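fwd from M.: "can u put these together and see what the complex looks like"

so here's what she sent:
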Amino acid sequence: MSSTGIPPGAVTRQVPTRPHDTWAEWYDIVYEACFGDTFAWLTEATLNSIRTTATSGARIIDFGAGTGRLAIPLAREGFRVHAVEASAPMLAQLVSKSSRELTPDAITTEHRDIQSYAGLGEFDVALCVFTVLIYITTASELRAALRAISDTLRPGGRLLIDLPDPSVFASFTANTPDVFRIVRITPDPPHAQTEPGTGFTFDEETLIKAPHLRRYHDRFPVRYWPPEVVRDYASACGLKVVTDLSAAFARAASTYWWLEKTSEALPENQRHDLPDKSVRSAEWRHAPFQKLPKIGPSRATGWAIVDLNHGPQSYQDCALTT
Ligand SMILES: C[S@@+](CC[C@H](N)C(=O)[O-])C[C@H]1O[C@@H](n2cnc3c(N)ncnc32)[C@H](O)[C@@H]1O
């Protein structure tokens, strides 16, 4: 027996984890610390848009519900909410938070990938927001997800999605009294850019300073999806863009769309013939980096955002020190 307690020759396997699994317990603290007022503003703006679209008591499905940022307030307001989430620890946070203030049946939950969700027409509104779609990194998975989402909606039902701009795919650090976070977002090498859009590796190391010292590391692939690609895939699933809220959500540096479920989808044999409107890494590199501060903190939060990819010069350009 070795000093690790593992018998010689034993095969050890790492249990695969989903993004956020290892730090779900800290997710709310980290996001609130890092994105401060902007995070609170985004939550309220998103809820307001949902309130004006969903009728009282509407059935809402929240895909990639996370820790319940939207699901919990919507259930509190009387909407019937079903939360679907790929990370079991994130879903556990949602359930735990919800149980502190709501009855057990106020939100139903399902630990599942969007792509494998099987439902037919039972929801009035679907949500898939706050970067959920960037976690889906192949065109076939994205099509499967949009198909599953479309299938859950009744005809005339609405879907809210967001698609982060290229400027969001930039490295940064955040240093607050509670959290020190280094996020590196690196484009995949050119030979690996075989899908539409641009693939990146998201790598973060974070130190939670309070209430007690903890450190975690998370690393997973993400993809910038050009909005027109998503619009074409959605349209093939019978989802049509009806409202473009991107200007109202400019502070989030993302496209925000409401789509409507029409009864028509492209015939099955045409669904895979959509043009590939790829945006390759050379193109995103020229994205205006100045947009980055839009997702940064307000001056009141007192932290700096630093571009790690572009070196010290960019630090001067982009730091949002207070
Ligand atoms: C940044 S969080 C956003 C959470 C929530 N939508 C919100 O608005 O706060 C993204 C969430 O999407 C989940 N997610 C990513 N890919 C998913 C998939 N294919 N199916 C279900 N959930 C997914 C992640 O586990 C994570 O909890």
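replying to her w this: The first strand starts at residue 59 and ends at 63.
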